[in-house]
Queue: 2 jobs
Job 1
Amino acid sequence: MGYNRTALAPRGYYPALSLHVRILLQEARLPTLPEQSNSVKRTFRLRKSTDFKRVRQRGKSYAHPLAVLITLPNDLPLARIGISAGRSVGNAVYRNRAKRRLRAIASTLFPYITPGWDIVLLARKNIHHADHATLHNALVHLFHRAGLLTMPEETLFISKDSR
């Protein structure tokens, strides 16, 4: 009729065609992209719930309408960061989106963070309404208030026109 029967054939029904298709797919395979370098490596992340609890209970917090930053000194020569979004942020889609946005911005700021700290970033309810520049500047401001930046705050701000 109006469709190709070979495309709908069960696997192994036309062995020569499946081999041909396999060869074409191997030839057309695109080169893999290198791993993104702007992500925070696993050794620099807080992953255990006990680490999150320890930082939340003993750490010092800095609040902003979009996020909360909680810091606690550690005895390590590196900074570790963890990101969380509670149910007040919204359903799983909104929480995961908020965490992705915070993670992306934190990874760009991570090279400028003073080592020796455990950091927890908590998303707040209004995070959905903020654009990237506003959220980035809010995190820069929080890290500056906590005294964790190795550069002046003004050099890390981005303007709203840059996106």
Job 2
Amino acid sequence: MTWRLRPPGRGGVSPKVQEHQDELQEPQEPGHESSAGHEHLDPPSALGTSCTPSDAKFDDKVHKYEARQKKAEEERRERRALRRQNQSLGLHNNLLALENRQLNCEKQTLKAEKREVTEKKNEMARRLRKQKRISEYYRRRLIEIQQKEAAEQNDHSK
């Protein structure tokens, strides 16, 4: 890779991009090691060129830009994941709401059935009490009649 000097104050490409472009342009010789994938680059002073402060500032800006881009991409991925999760939770929430409505309907049905059973039970209890009163009345009446007859027979036998 060769370092290319950039005019001060002008934009350019990052060293990694430049390295990739150089590899595409220069044919590789057998036995020549490619520097692709290596993080370490020879400084311009080792190649006989000088490094100007504007190049360092530019590289710093490029690194900051790449860091912002990477952070923004991570945030986009997180937002997408959260959106999918939120959508999934929304669907799950809708399903739970439907189940809740169904259970409430079943609960109302059971309450109505219980009310009907209670009303029938109370009606039967009323009828039984009424029958008991009637039976008790006729039993007492029968006893009175029998006592009168017994008293009349006792009067006739004297």
